[in-house]
## 1
Amino acid sequence: MLNERPVAEKGEHIIARHLIEDDRIKEEKNLVIDGVDVSGRWNTFIETRVDSEYDRSFFEEIKKTVVGSRINRCWQCGMCTASCTVTPLYRRFNPRAFIYMMQLGNLKELKKYVDVAWRCVGCYKCSQRCPKQVNPAEMMEALALVVKKYFPEELEKKALKIDEDVKKIYEEMILGRGRLDLAKLHTGSMRKMGRSKELLGKKIERDAIFKMIKDGRAFSVLRLGTPPKWHNSKKAIDKYLKNIGTLEESL
Amino acid sequence: MENLKENQAAYYPGCALLTIDRAYNNSSKMVAKKMGIELVEIPDYNCCGIGEMKSKGCVSLYLPLRNMEIAKTKLGSKNLVMACSVCYHEFTRSIQRVREDKSMLDGVNAIFKDAGEEEYSPDGEARHILEFLYNEKGPGEVRKNTVKPLNGIKIAPYYGCLYSRPSMYTFMGKKPVMDDPEYPHFMHEFLESLGAEVIHYGNEVQCCGGRNVVQDEETSFKLCSQTLSKAKNAGADMLALICPKCAGALDVNQPKIVEKFGKDSELPVVYLTQLMALAFGFSSKEAEISDMISNPLKILKEKGF
């Protein structure tokens, strides 16, 4: 009993533990080296990893986009991850690591995080605190572009599919008609998520909808309309997107 | 073109404020007028992109700037006032990006040209209603107009994200001062001037998850319940907002949040400008308090409004 002391979970005190594969963390519960007891958390070793599957010219592609134009400035301090709203909720969401992987063009590593990468809430705490004005919040948009171009098959998975579908609804309204109809956004998204039944079935939903019908707000959406001559803008936008020639075109 | 008079300002309402969040729109106009500035809506506005068009290159910059151009050509105003924090973010972002990068300005102007519109030159500013009223009139003017002080009401100010962050966008060209990006205080000062008791609760600039509220309500609910329960436990009677997207997450969704996280998250939510309207002598009907889903009318009635 004397030699047994509470030991941390394997590698649990490593920051961003998820970035290291489990079998590369070496820990001995009881270990004595040269007569010194280094048991438990004091003897955590990480086996060296050699990454060779990357392409340093990859980030030039990201740099050409509006959102990713400052990727070269990042010096990996980690302030973005430390400030992040999402990281405490989803530990694998790590903006610093994502930016590093994008800088290196390490697509193999990046692919492992496609399932959480879309969860950025756009709160801009990272961009506020970044000492190099990398604008990590917008770098997450660049990440979405990378995912879209290089892992299109991943977008078929459930959570990402919903995110994509909702973005399509936004796009149809904002670019197509120049204005955003919030009621249609709500009902359209619920339909895409297969939750239309809740709209009138669930009491909470029903109450809010009835309230807005009663006070007339539900109908004000109908009066929103389209800005006059918007078709000219729409044509110009389509032409721009067609000839853009960067990552942004894959959309 | 009809030029604005000295006491008028060009105003961008945005999609939410013209529909679901009409209470914020109307009360903003009411209190601005009372403080001596008439907000004049620009004609033929288009959506700012609401943060969802950023992956579309210069299109995301064109959408807000088209409205700046309308303000300039139709109303003769370089500056544009808006009440929605998301719109404000999109506008300041676009102006800043084309200012610092010539290639982006060229990209935007190529779209303007193809659309048969006048080219954009970056010389105006976007203003948020809170920052605008603070800088142009100040808390003194708020106190002067207060005829029915909010005495005895404990209010937790909630700024959210994009009103003050990131300063690389919101700070540019502001006169005389811009709010602190980490510890904003303009709303605190306004509420104090209205006679309310301001509650400090620690989540003033936390995120409500509003951006993903449609596709990821789970995250949004979690963040909102933290903010609502923190404010409630600090003794707040209600939460004051300055953004319709925050209202979507904290007010419209509140019954669902309470269902999931319990009564701790039940707290009336109201727009700052609605509270200002009440204190300036408008009735709760004029301030459209009953539009809010979280029922702030009850507590306001108890306090004599």
## 2
Amino acid sequence: MEIQSSSRWRIAGFGGQGVILSGMILGRAVSIFENRHATMMQSFGPEARGGACSAQVTLSDEQILYPYVKKPDVLVAMSQQALGLYLPLLRPGGKLIYEEDLVDIGDQGDLPEGVTAYGVPATKIAEKLRRRIVLNIVMVGFFSAVAPVVSRESARKAVLYSVPKGTEALNGRAYDMGYKYGVDTYGGES
Amino acid sequence: MHSIKEAVLTGIHFIDGDVACAEGAIAAGCRFSAGYPITPSTEVVERLAVRFPMVGGMFVQMEDELASSIAIIGAAWGGVKAMTVSSGPGISLMQEHIGLAVITETPTVWINVQRCGPSTGLPTLPAQGDMMQAQWGSHGDYPTLALCPNSPQEAFDLTIRAFNLAERYRTPVLVLLDEAVGHMLEKVVIPDADDIEVDARRFTDKPPSEYKPYECSEGSMVPDLAPVGQGYYFHVTGLTHDERGYPIMTADTQVDMMHRLMNKIDLEDVTDVRESEVDDCEVLVVSYGITSRVAERAILDARRQGLRVGHLRLVTVWPFPEQIVRDRATQDSVQRVVVPEMNLGQMVREVERTVAGARPVRLVGHPGGAVHDPNVILEAILEETS
Amino acid sequence: MSPRKTQALQAVPVNSPMEDWLRMDRMPHIWCPGCGIGTAVNAFVRAVEKTGIPREKIAVVSGIGCTGRVAGYLKLDSFHTTHGRAIPFAIGLKLANPELHVVVFSGDGDLIAIGGNHFIHAARRNVNITVICVNNFTYGMTGGQVAPTSPKFSMATTTPYGSLEAPFNLAHLADSSGASYVARYTTYHVRPLANTIKQALSKNGFSFVEVLSPCPTLFGRRNRLGDGLDIMRIFKEKSIRRDGLSTDAATVDLKNGPIIVGRFKDQPREAFLDVYNDAMTKALGKDRFRPYGPVTMRNPKGDGDGDGGR
């Protein structure tokens, strides 16, 4: 799949799931490792302290003038509440990426028109690695396979750049497993 | 002078404006900060608290903003570059000490990550409601130097510039971020230390017997500082004072002191206004901070519709760049001036005062809590254009 | 020579032992006849002379008020700041330049009312500074208003029918907030006061010296305590020295006595900068931590003169 020149994302879930970190990895991949442009706005205040949590990420080949995402091209939902809040805002032709065991999207037919859904059992994959904490890195691997806004190489570099020292191998594997699940399940380059 | 190599995080980063501001301070040589937690500026001091011990600096969380804002003045007199950081209610509390830094001519940097007011307002959301407070918040007349970044990169760059101007003019310098810039993560390129110009503290070369704290050398309006603890036995006071720094309670002394304070800043040196397609423009947009980015979106759309739109982006907001705004706004080609800002009409008053009725000036205000919808600015640009 | 200076030289006796320590070109001072602030300044200078601290390494910080003017008269590096904020200024100065001996010299209204929050936090934080508080039970500069030190039922312009509130016991406040060294004298006790200030200057940590002082013009007259000399007589007759007394028992009763004076507390603990340098070395390791400024005196017990201060 061709890498898109610009893309607006909403990544949402609960505090502690690594929502903000996954947004940062996306932003870093684009701005540090591809020398393109990215902005990220985070939700602040009590809602970022364990309750609902979300990030708005914009990626572009050009300077980003408006950093807020009103109608995302991609929604990454890691909680049911996030799906309820942001699915109605998803652009026609947009992508819904969700954690299968945390989010029930109901009938495919209920999705807004033109929206394609991509589910991943990220928690289960993370559990295979015996570390649930890498759930968000599995998600990053997965979404970089099904919504290619950045090269696989840059995304993987950004993961290793962003995780604590000494955990690179574990997180690298988490990324790869998420990526592979995406390719195996929904097609694309491996 | 250049920045110190081991202190500067040279490289490409994806960080928010608050963190970039802290890194700018470190690159500029700041080694002391005092502050009190307040959203949305806390990330600046949290970053300093992590980084300062690795670069020979110190952050102290004080008991309130009154203490923070004067601790940095004490630290500056102790010989260290110092800054404080706050937002909204905290900035209101600090106003008295901005005045103290002005009258004692203490080089200091004051970071205001603006949020919505009045009072507690919307702590986590952006506004540009402190623009007039920056100039008029402390009592009395005084010159204000204030810079307004519109990106994390500029938060880094302008914080360095703020420290340099503070040293050059011996005055408090304000950096006015807003929650959007403060909390926005974006690429920030931190150059090599050798490529970062830093103004060093300027001390007198006179011996104590010849030194007067507020006497200027020939051709300068900015007196040299004396180092503390070296036998100069200087006096510093918030009272009106003469060249010796002694309080003198007369109108004459006030006139002399104020004349120098109000005129010591070289406008040409401090003014930074970015122009885009202003020659022959029909509509001139004047903006600053995050709003200048959003306005740029509207301007590009308007140009696409065939309208000639110029953009004056004020990076230095105080002293207000009167000359440039007047010259540009009253060009023959200009029909109207549009001023979008995230308040209900602050800098637009300066534009109106400067343009003095020569052209219609239209405010596109927003009470804060969100940046403008670019379409609202676009409508104002297109409106009334025949 | 300016006319002002000529006048000053005429007004002050030549060969005053204080001359070398004062900005003589600023004399005469603004204090009233019978005021005790000058006596406190005198005791401070004697103390400094005895410590042997190089004069240029002493910095004085004052707030606003009659005592706030002390900084302006002392020929030292001196800072006259804003109302109530001398202590946080002093903390910034000290932390930026740990070689300095930073002394806050200010009044009770300045340090304890508007500046009260800074006072307790500074004692808790234990930055190595000395605070000398001239307590004259009122606001002098603004004309005799009630202070947080004014005795209950005392008269002030803003309590024309008597003060209704209980005053602070400053020694107890400093002690319970964590000060390392706490003492109180009156301007009658010139010699012990000088010795105490000397001791306070040599302590590592936050040291506090309260100096009870007459304000004959605004407090004494309104409260029928007489003139400066009469108040000095009260200090002389009603004072009891109780070194080491628990500060909650170290009360002040101007009318009926006693006025308890002495060195109540001398329990040095590690000062802020020492803790900082130790803790950062532990947290970051010697390689990553860059110590802040020169490391301060490492003698937590200080080098007090031991002249019966306990």
